[in-house]
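Q: I'm teaching a short session on how sequence maps to structure, and I want students to see two examples side by side rather than one. Could you give me a first protein with its sequence written out and its structure tokens following it? Keep the formatting plain so it prints cleanly on a handout.
A: Of course. Example one:
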Amino acid sequence: MIDQLEYWVVPYAEPNDHGSIRYSVFVHLRDSSGASGWGEAVTIFDEAARSTMAVLDGWAPFVVGLPAEPAAIREAVYGHAWWYAGGGASSFALAALDIAAWDLAGRLRKRTVVELLGGPTNVGDPTLPVVVTTHAMYEDLDYQATILAQHVDDIGATGVKVGWGKKGGAGLGIDAVRDRSFAGALRSALPPGSLMMFDIGARIRWNAREAIDRVAAFDEHDLYWIEEPLGADDPEGYRLLKDSTDVLIAYGEREWTANGVRRILLTGTVDVVGIDAGRAEGITGFVDAVGSIELASKQVNAHAFAGPSSYAAGLAVSLSTPCCRQFEVAPLRNELMTQLAPGLDVPHGSVTVLPGHGLGVQIDRGAVERLAVMSAD
């Protein structure tokens, strides 16, 4: 039985995004036996984090006293918050609670979350190759390409996903000639056979015709996938793009729920579904979505670009499904990683089940309390 629920807003500087300040909400659940689990909501913005805290304030009175089971928490949350559950801050709050509940359940049973999910898909080799995920930040694109290739070499990655339209001087996604030049420079800098993916940020506004032309211009550089070139919700535009290219189309990271994932799968326009456990209602929401992704014979790709709990949650689900083929790793460790879970190192070559029970991540409570700017009363 859960006898304590605590939560904090923790800001951090993200070195893979030009040092921008981001926010996560961390949740700590304690069972009456003394066991505990940690979860994380990847809220990114200050106001989203504070809204998530307000939702948790409303839920705390009935979460305490529930069985230490993810299903019990989810049922109680949807029963209470029927008017506003299934999106926004409620999905953030449920994500953090759900991840913490899975972590706690694993520790109580002395099992890993991967084991609770049925074990790794490939029992003989329970690993996934890593790909670098970071943002283009430098104006000198040849230098930027060299830096990215160095990251790939440093962690033994099979490829790199590059965020466009982010902070810094790169300016990608605006000028088509400059974009083609970067694609060529990056392909030349990478080891032969490396995967190359471009993640088109929310600040970039391409229409379908522009996206078709841009993606066609990358054909000679063997682009593996293009992510969110038309944002989160443009089924007509994505249909036109899908019909024009063999490059894989990735989106879905901004869906809140498994139902949202099913909606985009039904359009037939997504090849790689991005999911963030710290946004889309935690491990339970991720697993629910994965069931539909498997049935559609599509890929899933975990977004694990924030703190240690969301990283471990995304890894656990990724290892337990055959529709995940790689796992993204940020090459530069942010403050959440270095201070909250200093024992969690950047992997080299591949990722596997983290050692220890639950999620396999040891969170430094003192560091959470020291870095937090807001906590439950």
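Q: Perfect. Now a second example for contrast.
A: Example two:
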Amino acid sequence: MIGHLSGIVASFIGPLVIWLINKDKADKGWLNEQAKEALNFQITVVIAYFICGVLTIVLIGALLLPVVWIANLILCIIAGMKNNEGLDYRYPFAIRLIK
């Protein structure tokens, strides 16, 4: 749960730290999967922020930036709540770079 919720404050750093600490531990399989999922989503959010930054030249990025921020906030909270219940969560808009 902390891996998903840390994405709100620490972007991709929180899930990355959790994944790197636990990636070699066989008994932490579920935690690793959820940390990778959170990391992939936060990498996607960083890419979206970069695209919004480029698009601010034509003023569309300024409108999309709050949308990306709100989507990140809402989806991270939903993921944290699902993980707290013991359920897997897969983000609907994540580019899966870390397998």
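Q: What should students look for in example two?
A: Point them to this: The helical segments are 2-10, 13-22, 29-55, 60-84. Also worth mentioning: The chain has one domain: 2-84.
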